[in-house]
Design a protein that fits this description.
It is elongated and about 65 Å long. By secondary structure, it is mostly helical. Helix 1 packs across helix 2.
Length: 85
Protein backbone atom coordinates (compact mmCIF):
# COMPACT_ATOMS: atom_id res chain seq x y z
CA UNK A 1 0.00 0.00 0.00
CA UNK A 2 1.46 3.36 -1.04
CA UNK A 3 1.95 6.03 1.58
CA UNK A 4 -0.51 8.89 1.51
CA UNK A 5 0.79 12.13 0.00
CA UNK A 6 1.09 15.15 2.28
CA UNK A 7 -0.12 18.68 1.73
CA UNK A 8 1.86 21.81 2.54
CA UNK A 9 0.74 25.38 3.04
CA UNK A 10 3.40 27.92 2.23
CA UNK A 11 2.87 31.46 3.48
CA UNK A 12 4.40 34.84 2.68
CA UNK A 13 5.65 33.99 -0.81
CA UNK A 14 6.85 37.31 -2.26
CA UNK A 15 4.98 38.42 -5.41
CA UNK A 16 8.19 38.36 -7.50
CA UNK A 17 8.82 34.73 -6.49
CA UNK A 18 5.21 33.81 -7.26
CA UNK A 19 5.48 35.41 -10.71
CA UNK A 20 8.78 33.65 -11.44
CA UNK A 21 7.37 30.26 -10.41
CA UNK A 22 4.21 30.75 -12.48
CA UNK A 23 6.33 31.73 -15.48
CA UNK A 24 8.55 28.68 -15.07
CA UNK A 25 5.51 26.39 -14.79
CA UNK A 26 4.07 27.82 -18.03
CA UNK A 27 7.44 27.43 -19.79
CA UNK A 28 7.58 23.77 -18.77
CA UNK A 29 3.91 23.20 -19.58
CA UNK A 30 3.01 21.99 -16.08
CA UNK A 31 0.83 23.24 -13.25
CA UNK A 32 2.30 25.31 -10.45
CA UNK A 33 1.66 22.41 -8.08
CA UNK A 34 3.54 19.98 -10.35
CA UNK A 35 6.47 22.38 -10.65
CA UNK A 36 6.66 22.79 -6.87
CA UNK A 37 6.42 19.05 -6.19
CA UNK A 38 9.14 18.37 -8.78
CA UNK A 39 11.31 21.06 -7.21
CA UNK A 40 10.80 19.64 -3.73
CA UNK A 41 11.62 16.13 -4.98
CA UNK A 42 14.80 17.36 -6.64
CA UNK A 43 15.92 19.33 -3.59
CA UNK A 44 15.23 16.34 -1.34
CA UNK A 45 17.28 14.12 -3.64
CA UNK A 46 14.26 11.90 -4.30
CA UNK A 47 13.70 12.52 -7.99
CA UNK A 48 15.90 9.71 -9.24
CA UNK A 49 17.92 11.92 -11.55
CA UNK A 50 21.04 13.91 -10.76
CA UNK A 51 20.46 17.52 -9.83
CA UNK A 52 21.58 19.94 -12.52
CA UNK A 53 23.87 22.64 -11.20
CA UNK A 54 24.32 25.99 -12.84
CA UNK A 55 26.98 27.22 -10.47
CA UNK A 56 30.07 26.01 -8.64
CA UNK A 57 28.76 26.42 -5.09
CA UNK A 58 29.36 22.75 -4.28
CA UNK A 59 33.06 23.27 -4.98
CA UNK A 60 33.43 26.40 -2.84
CA UNK A 61 35.98 25.81 -0.12
CA UNK A 62 37.04 22.42 -1.44
CA UNK A 63 40.42 23.44 -2.89
CA UNK A 64 43.28 21.22 -1.76
CA UNK A 65 46.78 22.65 -2.11
CA UNK A 66 48.93 20.44 -4.28
CA UNK A 67 52.47 21.42 -5.28
CA UNK A 68 52.19 19.69 -8.67
CA UNK A 69 48.97 21.55 -9.47
CA UNK A 70 50.43 24.84 -8.28
CA UNK A 71 53.45 24.30 -10.54
CA UNK A 72 51.29 23.43 -13.56
CA UNK A 73 49.11 26.50 -12.99
CA UNK A 74 52.16 28.74 -12.65
CA UNK A 75 53.49 27.44 -15.96
CA UNK A 76 50.14 28.08 -17.66
CA UNK A 77 50.12 31.65 -16.41
CA UNK A 78 53.44 32.52 -18.02
CA UNK A 79 53.04 34.94 -20.90
CA UNK A 80 55.19 34.31 -23.98
CA UNK A 81 55.74 37.67 -25.70
CA UNK A 82 55.98 35.85 -29.04
CA UNK A 83 52.29 35.00 -28.74
CA UNK A 84 51.49 38.73 -28.77
CA UNK A 85 53.71 39.82 -31.63
Amino acid sequence: MAAKAHQYTIRNVPPRVHRALRKKAVERGVSLNTLLVQTLEAEAGERGEPRAHDDLDDLFGSWVHDKAVDKALAEQRKVDPRDWA
